[in-house]
Design goal:
This protein has helices at about 10-15, 25-35, 40-45, 50-65, 75-90, 90-110, 115-140, 145-170. About 70% of the residues lie in helices and about 0% in strands.
């Protein structure tokens, strides 16, 4: 009777804090024992990547649709470009940036060499993708060598970054593969 039934009085993010099958009473006790200090919220964010991972995949697919062979007509591509730029300037930094900054402390503490190595590569690719994306927003691709370099750097870093993030978070990814 006191099981969580996903009713509206329990926020979705709080329900995800508990393992499946926990009772509503345990949920309420956990909510009262949780202090909402910034440090604990920051630590919680370091382990909860669903929004960050989802925003990365959204950015990847909206950017992929900007590639000329996949863009059917410019009238659709320009709206997609607007969406991609707006997401990259608002949603992506808020979700992925906050997760990345809170997750960085795990990089130095991790005893798993694979996760440390892929984490460092992901950081480098993120910086290349960010820098080239900002250059594309500010300079564009007018046909000069700087625009072409920024475009290729952005494209190649995103192509490497997305599958690497998927592999880095393979056990916890939001993408589920059904067999």
């Amino acid at each position: 009777k006191d099981r969580i039934d996903n009713s509206f009085h329990y926020p979705y993010c709080v329900i995800n804090l508990l393992p499946p099958g926990r009772t509503a009473r345990a949920l309420e006790q956990s909510m009262t024992s949780l202090s909402l200090s910034p440090r604990q919220c920051w630590q919680w964010l370091a382990y909860h990547h669903q929004a960050a991972e989802g925003s990365l995949y959204l950015m990847f697919f909206s950017g992929l649709l900007l590639w000329e062979p996949l863009t059917p007509v410019w009238s659709l591509a320009r709206w997609n470009l607007l969406l991609h730029v707006m997401l990259s300037l608002t949603l992506f930094p808020l979700l992925f940036g906050a997760f990345w900054l809170s997750h960085r402390s795990l990089l130095s503490k991790s005893r798993k060499p694979f996760l440390r190595t892929t984490g460092r590569i992901i950081e480098a690719l993120l910086l290349v993708c960010l820098a080239s994306g900002l250059l594309l927003v500010l300079h564009g691709t007018p046909g000069d060598s700087l625009g072409n370099l920024a475009s290729w750097a952005h494209w190649l870093s995103a192509l490497a970054l997305t599958p690497l993030v998927l592999r880095h978070a393979w056990r916890w990814t939001i993408l589920t593969w059904r067999t």
